[in-house]
Amino acid sequence: MKLLAIDTSNQAMSIAVMENEKIIGELTTNLKRNHSERLMPAIDALMKELSLEIQEIDRIAVAKGPGSYTGLRIGVTIAKTLAWTLNKELVGISSLKVLAANVNPTHQYIVPVMDARRGNVYTGLYQYKDGILEEVEPDTHISADKWAEHLSHKEGQFILVGEDYGKHQETFEKHLTERVSVAPPQQQIPKASVLGILSVSSEAEEVHTFTPDYLKLAEAEENWQNAHPDLVEDNYVEKI
Amino acid sequence: MKKMEKKLILAIESSCDETSAAVVENGNKILSNIVASQIKSHMRFGGVVPEIASRHHVEQITQIIEEAMEVAEVTYEDLAGVAVTEGPGLVGALLIGVNAAKTVAYAHKLPLIAVNHMAGHIYANKFIHPMTFPLLALVVSGGHTELVYMAEDGSYDIIGETRDDAAGEAYDKIGRVLGLPYPGGKAIDQMAHEGQDVYHFPRAMIKEANYDFSFSGLKSSFINKVHNAQQKGEELDEHDLAASFQASVVEVLVTKTIRAAKEYNVKQLLLAGGVAANKGLREALTKAMKEELPEVELVIPPLSLCGDNAAMIGAAGFVELEKRQFAEYNLNANPGLLLG
Question: Could you tell me the residue range of the domain that residue A157 belongs to?
Fold first, then answer.
């Protein structure tokens, strides 16, 4: 099975082509530049370099969030449109799990971190069990302070992964003291090959209804739902 | 006789709060035109919330494109290109259509065509009547108020535009003052037909020797009138308020448009954009053209083609297809894209 993996959930852009768990090609950049301009040319260039036609790909994997709203939507739109238009399988994997899986098997808890502004983080708690990375607590949007305090009640060691860790390192150290460490630099940005490996055995998604896991409502939506808890509807879009 | 080749374009539009896809034949025949409106969502906020619009577009995009292909009964082999709105519009919303269009073009090795949304509104008229050049188009929507001179297909010269609020924006704002649900345009148009122009709001820039517009002064006069009455405890007739507001907007638009049509000696006048659905504007422009420029053909799109839709993007995209003006895979959303 050939697989194309795409991660544009944050500043880094990473794409990879795999044959099952074998990496055939991977392209990763970490620039403050626009994913919309660069993702499709990157896919085109990588496929050409590998002398592959996009039709030969059996499965599209995408980092489904959380992360930058715009970045997620670009990756997800291209992934779901490719899967739909070529009738291929689509798999979505947590962007935080992709980061966590950068860390080699260890007995420590793995804590992927993305900055979510105003002292908040997108984060989760992962751990290797019998060599397989498992989610210990679901991904969440939370204040870094609350999260670090919550983790401090657990026993064991923690390893932080994700480029934004520096913005919250002090908070984690305050609550976890010497029990927290930081992953090495080569593990700090997402790699699509890691996403690809996580996707090989995952179940395919329903393509049309697939959307990013933002882990957070739009601010206006959140305010409105808080003010009108009884009026929330399932479907706000109508064909005219 | 050689049969004319049919060229089909798959068109995608997502510039604001409608996700739309269409299949258009030779730039003038609609095979399908699917429009999913988010208005029910944005009504909750009294206006379009960009982040929420972007989220809805991702939910809808592939379903809408699939439906457009199914209704038109076409496959990718039948297509000559994929056209998409590049701008102007909301950047996050545009990005969904742009990236979906690029993907379909790439996956099926089809030319990618970038279309200006305003050109799309103008070309919506081509579904009803062939375009005769030179022509003048009055483009009025929630974001734009422009007079566009076209010497030929694909050539756009903006000879006048709003210096502040767009006409549709002014409607939305006074709709809010009158306590109408968003968007207020349709309700104001209906109320206007049951009232009289008794308040004589100013006709901004109507006599100035240019083709520009201004609607923010009118909006302020309207708000002042309502607030002053409230302070004095006076009751104003809402229908008369609506009628007076609409009379000002329509008179300025019609007067300057007719003057421009005369000066530029055009053969055709096109009405375009969401506000082209306004009954008061349609009636006044029809009447004025009959009286003052009977030799110039007036084309007004049906209501179904006034709002944002992908068929119009396919019509404008056909011009680019014929010129073989194609976009690359690095096409980006261009929220401030200018016409011409």
Answer: 103-187
